[in-house]
Amino acid sequence: MQVTLSKLPLNKAGSLFLRMSAMGSKFLIFTYLSKYFDESVYGVYSLLSTTVTIAIFVLGFDFYNYAIRDILLKPNDRASKVATSFIFYGIIYVAFIIVGYLIFDQVDYLAQYTTLIIFIGISEHLNQEIYRLLLAFKKVLVANWFLFLRVAGWTIWVLFQIVILKKTISLEYILFTWLLFNGAILLVTLLWFNQSIRNHIAKIRFKKHWLTTGLKVSLIFYTATLALKVIEYSNRYIVEGVLDEASAGIFSFYSNISMVIGIYISTVVVSYELPDLIESSTNHTFESKLLRFKNLLIRHSAVAFLAVIILIYPILLWQGKDSFAQYWPLIILLNAATFLMNVSLIYHSYLYIKHQEKKLLQIVLISSVINVISTFLFSYLFGIIGAGIAFLITGITIFVLRKRAVKKKI
Known about the structure:
Layout: H1 10-36, H2 39-60, H3 63-73, H4 78-104, H5 108-111, H6 114-136, H7 140-164, H8 171-192, H9 194-200, H10 208-242, H11 245-258, H12 260-279, H13 286-319, H14 322-325, H15 329-343, H16 345-353, H17 357-382, H18 384-405
C-alpha cells in the first residue's frame, strides 16, 4: 500500500517535515545567493559548496554500508563497532587535513578558504554519520531535529542577515556560519548522549579485523559512489576550467534546481518503497511490487519534471538577471537527464536486489567516463548549453546500460 503523509504516524510525519524543511532551506539559500552575488562570486560559492559535498563522500569510504548493517544484524560489541568506526574516521580526517592543504592551496578559488572548507567537510561528514546511526537505532525524530537545526539553522541565519538586517556579507562569513552551526550541533549531540557514552566507554575495544573486513566489503560501493559523484558534480569544475567562474555559477544554479527532482524521488518514493521491495524479493509478491515501484518512479518523476519546468520561470523573473535567464533551455536538458536517471532506478534496484554489484559498478564507471569526456568536448564547442547536452547524453547512457543489464522485461 502506498504511504502518504496523511497515513504516517505523527513522529514520522514530523521527521519527514523536518527533513524536507532542511533540504528546502539549502535550496532557498542557493537560489537567493544567485540574486545577491554577482555571477563570478556566485560561481565561486557554488564550487566551494560542491567541494564540501564531494568531500563528504570521499571521507566516508562508504563504510556505513557495511558498519550499520553489521551493527544491526550482529548487536554484540555494538559500542566497540561504533567506536571503531569513528576512530577510523578520525584517521581519515587527519589525512584529509594534510592532503586538503596541499591540494586546495593550489586552486585559485579555494586557496583563501582552505581551512574553512576542510573543517566544514569534516564536520558535515561527522554529523552525517551520526545522523545515520541515529536512524539505525530508531532515533528518527531526534536525528531529523538535529539535521533541521544544523542545515536550516545556518541558512536561515545568513538570510536573516541579508534580508532583514540588510547587512553585506562575504563568502567567508557564510562559510564560517556554516562551520559554527555544524560544530554547535556536534556539541549538542555529545551532551545529549553523554550518559550513554559514559556507560559504554569501559567496554570499548578497537576491532581491527571487523574494520578491515568492512573496508573490503565497502570498496566496491565506494568506487561506485565516487563514479556517481563524478557524473553529478564534475561538470561544474569542467565548466569553470573550460569557460570561467561565472559560467560555473550559472550552470550550478540550473543543476541544483534540477537536482530537486532526485531529492523528491528519493524522499517520497525510494525511501518508502525500496525497503519493502527488498523484503519481498524472496516471495511471490516481488513481481507486483516491482511493477508498482516502476509506475511510481515514472509518475513522480514526470510530476517533478513538470513542476521544476513551471517553477523556473517565476524564479528567473524574481532573480532579474539576463545572464542567467538566457540559458533557460539548460533546465530542459538537465531535467530530461535527471528524469531518465530516476526512472532507471527500477533497473538499478533490481540489479542491487539480485546482488549484481559488479554490473552496477561497471555501468557507473562507463557512464562517468562518457560524462567527463562529453562535458569537456561539448562545453568547449557550445559553452554552458554544451554541458547540459553532455549531461543528457550521460542520462541516456545510464538508462540504456541499466535497462540492458536486466535480462527480463519489467
